[in-house]
Design goal:
mainly alpha; 0% strand; extended
């Protein structure tokens, strides 16, 4: 409160100096004092918003680290608590009978391993290569994970906020991975493949989050905003086909238009065959790594989730003239 009062007093003092008489520039700008006031508070709002986002990101990252440490502790606790058995004295004259192999011990808490696999935020979700956008997406996914872990939470507005924010950031992550695959063909395809696999998981998480929002009592009012954000997300994801297709077409034209001097000189026996123009090879999605990865990532993820998309053929109608 004292800090806010001090900032207001400082602002009033600066404003009085700004509108003081004696200089033409200040006299002209004094007629637009409301603009200066709104600009000041707008800048203060932006500064506070940036500080809040940084603090929120740090808090979520700390919670993620605590959750990972809990999962690691749960996985190592049974092995540490197991009592050591003493070895029995074996007589050298007695031949031991072969025994059947021991059965694998069942996991006491099977959900912990699933949570650990879901929380493999560094390896399961390959967003570390795309920079700060990937970190923002990871935080949103973690918040959605915490909501699914605690179904009794009724913070519907917070869930809708993270759903909308994650849906708006996901296309940017995919586009950044596509640009990386263009600029770095050697390692870019692996980055694109990893990012698209993680993006498929993120899409499934978004659908699950929307289902969680629809089950809440006060979530029906926010479903429209979330669905609107999802529509824009899928539009942006489908727009990546155009970018990748244009790049692949340009690369194919560049390879086919290579100068004849750079090619290997043909022998006399192959002159007749070389004079005949060769038909250009038809592009294939499977042979293009980027297009193949983009077309396959949603299908694989939905198939693992147990969803089937079967569109029946549209009936053909004949129009009589």
């Amino acid at each position: 409160m004292i800090l806010a009062l001090t900032s207001r007093v400082e602002y009033i003092r600066l404003l009085c100096q700004h509108v003081a008489k004696g200089r033409r520039r200040d006299a002209i700008s004094s007629t637009q004092r409301f603009l200066d006031r709104s600009a000041h508070w707008r800048s203060e709002y932006e500064r506070a918003k940036n500080a809040w986002q940084i603090a929120e990101g740090q808090a979520i990252e700390l919670r993620m680290e605590v959750e990972k440490m809990k999962v690691c502790l749960e996985s190592t606790q049974p092995a540490a608590s197991a009592s050591k058995k003493r070895k029995k004295a074996v007589d050298e004259d007695v031949i031991p009978d072969p025994r059947s192999p021991k059965k694998a011990k069942t996991i006491a808490n099977p959900g912990s391993r699933e949570e650990a696999a879901e929380l493999g935020l560094g390896t399961g979700f390959g967003f570390a290569e795309v920079g700060e956008i990937g970190n923002i997406l990871m935080r949103g996914l973690y918040e959605m994970y915490t909501f699914s872990k605690h179904p009794d939470r009724s913070e519907v507005t917070v869930l809708a906020y993270h759903l909308v924010r994650t849906a708006s950031v996901l296309p940017q992550v995919v586009q950044q991975a596509i640009k990386t695959s263009f600029t770095q063909p050697a390692s870019g395809h692996e980055v694109l493949k990893t990012t698209l696999t993680a993006a498929g998981k993120a899409v499934v998480s978004l659908v699950v989050g929307l289902d969680r929002l629809s089950q809440a009592t006060d979530g029906t009012e926010l479903q429209g905003q979330v669905v609107y954000a999802y529509v824009h997300m899928f539009v942006s994801l489908l727009g990546t086909f155009e970018e990748v297709s244009e790049f692949e077409v340009i690369e194919a034209q560049r390879k086919t238009s290579m100068p004849a001097a750079a090619k290997r000189p043909s022998t006399s026996k192959k002159k007749a065959s070389s004079q005949q123009p060769k038909q250009p090879k038809q592009p294939n999605l499977k042979e293009t790594p980027s297009l193949n990865a983009i077309t396959c990532f949603p299908r694989r993820r939905y198939r693992r989730a147990g969803w089937k998309f079967r569109c029946p053929p549209a009936p053909i109608r004949r129009i009589r003239i």
